[in-house]
Design brief:
The protein has 21 helices and 22 strands. It has 683 residues and is an alpha+beta fold. Strand 10 and strand 11 form a beta hairpin. The longest helix is centred in the N-terminal third of the chain and has 24 residues. Bound molecules: zinc ion (ZN). The site of zinc ion has 6 residues, from helix 17 and helix 21.
């Protein structure tokens, strides 16, 4: 690993000192820090794929780079300013403040977002902000590394109360510190937090004081800390929290709130997804991390059962998760209400994170497919085009008349309202009283280059298509430079050039997404392969020459998505999809007809349309819209009867229908929204 030694910087010395403990797996933490991916599976014995560090991938112009730049320049600084305003930084300084209990977690996520954003980007102002926040944190740590402000205010009660908030904040601070180490080589915060965790591990866990993870996330952080330092105690503590905590002995175990968050069912015994959506999926992420290190077969069976339950019964077509707004929980099978659903932005993010881990355990495209679906739809809908406004929840149907005050007084979602700034729920907002989604969006966007590629001993895996330059090496240590050029997801063509190649054979694993009927591949300008399978990785193994060019062309028709008949609310409807993008109808594009009166005629095969995909450069930074023919009924006023013995007039008037990507809705003022559209019966 010559490359790693060259990259070792002076600032790594302190982390080398940190890793001098009993590194049971012989990891060399300092050497690997800046070569570690976002979720570092490079030494994970049960990972089939190994992710690459963020610095190995530079995004070119395109879909995600535009959003990533807005994230770094606008969203991340704005969130820090808002946290400062509510006192989250004063809380860390020990000054009077009005910050919420878990505000340290917001700061931890912010550090993670800023660190990943600064990887490879020159943003001096953001770097300055990150330094300032780190200084505040470093100055605020207690002897023993304690950094939780509730501990300072309430100790020792807070320490004895090691549940939700305490470990939740520690988990996010740890993830921030690890990102800071991997992206910037700054290990100061990581050193302090490692001693904090050492103290926690000494007092709590198996055979000691009871401890449990109220809002999971610490499990992921503990496994990542183990990956960073090689200290097995962190992995053992993760195991304790995931599999061994006796939940029946937790004070208040029968409490509704506890049951709601933790479900009361030990993770290893779960066979269906229940409880708070974000908690449930974060728990899956931590368990998947633990599996990647240990190969625990029972845990793997649990993970697959839960994934199947999610994807076959409990996930929105957008990759969103969570259908019970009052408790923010996952509902029963097929209980996926469009308007009253919840689908928190954080839950879609957790869906991305979980699938990324399962992908690395298996190399199976179904997990990358799910990750891409959640990424382009349920996740991205959570942030506005300008990077300054957010959705906490992401419904699939919304009515403009219920936005603003009307909605906030309504009966729909008291909890989300409680968490909102009071401006209403179906309009994007600059912040929420519980602002978890904001830095969560920011850290994922910032880390996104790390989600494009992985390696295995056989070669390089391409998971996501985007203009980019991968400059890394094969697992045998030979240099690889792979350049990708594409306007995906707006076009169906991807060009790749291999600028540096190993001497021997190397496989390229190209993802053929589930949504395409097929693809053609050309090599150096000549037809090479036609693919009729989808939802797979296509392996091209050969001895490459520098300058070899691959061109992939996916069939990317506008497709109708039909719901399982048990989704009663969507009976007789379809949704439109083109590539990875789920589309919706918004009233701002249909000034003369309510989007709720539109029907799509379909042919004998159930295909609507035809729809034309049109790139509109001036619409929200450039979007592909779908334009086709629909039917509309006579305008029905709100004075019309609710029920009648006569059928209501069938829509007959031909009208133009325009669909926009679901993620883009709500950027042009209050509006009616629907993803599911009634259709005629196939002839
Ligand atoms: Zn959230």
């Amino acid at each position: 690993m010559v490359l790693h030694v060259v990259l070792l910087s002076v600032s790594m010395v302190s982390l080398l000192a940190l890793s001098q403990g009993p590194a049971e797996k012989g990891r060399s933490a300092g050497n690997e820090s800046r070569s570690a991916g976002v979720v570092c599976t490079s030494s994970s014995p049960f990972a089939r794929l190994h992710d690459v560090p963020l610095r190995a991938v530079r995004l070119g112009e395109g879909f995600w780079q535009t959003r990533r730049a807005t994230n770094a320049r606008t969203s991340i600084p704005a969130f820090l300013a808002s946290r400062d305003e509510v006192g989250a930084l004063d809380k860390l300084r020990g000054r009077p403040n009005q910050a919420r209990g878990n505000s340290d977690a917001d700061v931890g996520k912010w550090i993670e977002a800023a660190s990943w954003a600064l990887q490879g980007e020159d943003e001096p102002q953001l770097r300055q902000l990150l330094d300032q926040v780190l200084e505040i944190l470093l100055a605020s740590s207690e002897p023993g590394g304690y950094l939780h402000t509730a501990y300072r205010q309430k100790m020792p009660a807070a320490l004895a109360d090691l549940k939700g908030g305490h470990l939740y904040c520690l988990g996010h601070l740890l993830q921030g510190a690890i990102a800071c180490s991997r992206a910037a080589g700054d290990n100061r915060l990581l050193e302090i937090l490692a001693s904090y965790v050492d103290n926690v591990v000494e007092r709590f866990g198996a055979g000691r004081q009871l401890c449990w993870s109220g809002h999971p996330n610490i499990e992921m952080a503990l496994v990542e800390l183990y990956r960073t330092t090689g200290r097995k105690r962190y992995l053992d503590f993760a195991r304790y929290l995931i599999l061994e905590t006796d939940l029946t002995k937790v004070p208040g175990a029968r409490d509704v709130n506890f049951q709601h968050y933790v479900t009361g069912v030990p993770f290893g015994s779960r066979r269906e997804l229940r409880g708070h959506a974000v908690c449930a999926l974060y728990a899956c992420c931590g368990a998947a991390d633990y599996y990647l290190e240990t190969g625990d077969a029972d845990l793997w069976r649990t993970l697959l059962a839960l994934w199947r339950d999610l994807t076959h019964h409990k996930m929105y077509v957008t990759g969103g998760v969570g259908s019970l707004p009052a408790t923010e929980a996952i509902g029963d099978r097929y209980d996926l209400p469009n308007e009253r659903g919840y689908a928190e932005t954080c839950a879609a993010i957790a869906n991305v994170m979980w699938n990324w881990r399962l992908l690395h355990a298996t190399g199976e495209a179904r997990f990358a497919d799910m990750m891409e679906l959640a990424l382009y739809n349920g996740f991205l809908s959570g942030v506005s085009w300008d990077g300054l406004r957010y959705f906490y929840w992401n419904p699939l149907l919304s009515r403009a008349e219920r936005t603003g005050a009307a909605r906030s007084e309504g009966s729909v979602n008291w909890l989300a309202h409680k968490k909102s700034s009071g401006l209403g729920l179906d309009v994007r907002q600059p912040y929420f009283q519980t602002p978890c989604c904001l830095p969560n969006v920011q850290r994922l966007l910032a880390a996104l280059p790390g989600y494009l590629y992985s390696t295995s001993p056989a070669g390089v895996w391409v998971h996501l298509y985007h203009s980019s330059r991968l400059a890394w090496h094969s697992e045998a240590g030979e240099e690889i430079v792979l350049v990708q050029n594409t306007k995906y997801p707006w076009t169906n063509t991807i060009e790749m050039t291999l600028e540096r190649v190993p001497a021997g054979a190397l496989s390229l694993f190209l993802r053929v997404p589930y949504w395409t009927p097929g693809a053609t591949i050309r090599l150096n300008g000549k037809p090479f392969r036609t693919i009729r399978e989808s939802g797979v990785y296509d392996e091209i193994r050969r001895t490459w020459a520098e300058g070899d060019r691959i061109e992939i062309q996916f069939d990317m028709p506008v497709r109708a998505v039909y719901p399982n008949p048990r989704l009663r609310e969507n009976a007789g409807c379809l949704a439109l999809q083109c590539g990875p993008i789920i589309y919706c109808l918004e009233s701002v594009d249909h000034p003369n007809t309510s989007v709720f009166d539109l029907i799509l005629p379909v042919d004998a095969e159930g295909v609507p349309g035809p729809f034309t995909a049109t790139f509109e450069p001036d619409l929200l930074g450039g979007l592909v819209t779908l334009n086709g023919a629909g039917l509309a009924g006579p305008s029905r006023s709100t004075e019309a009867k609710l029920y009648d013995f006569q059928p209501f007039d069938a829509p007959t008037e031909r009208v133009l229908v325009k669909a926009i990507p679901y993620f883009a809705w709500g950027n042009r003022g209050p509006s009616d929204l629907t993803v599911w559209i009634p259709r005629t019966r196939p002839r």
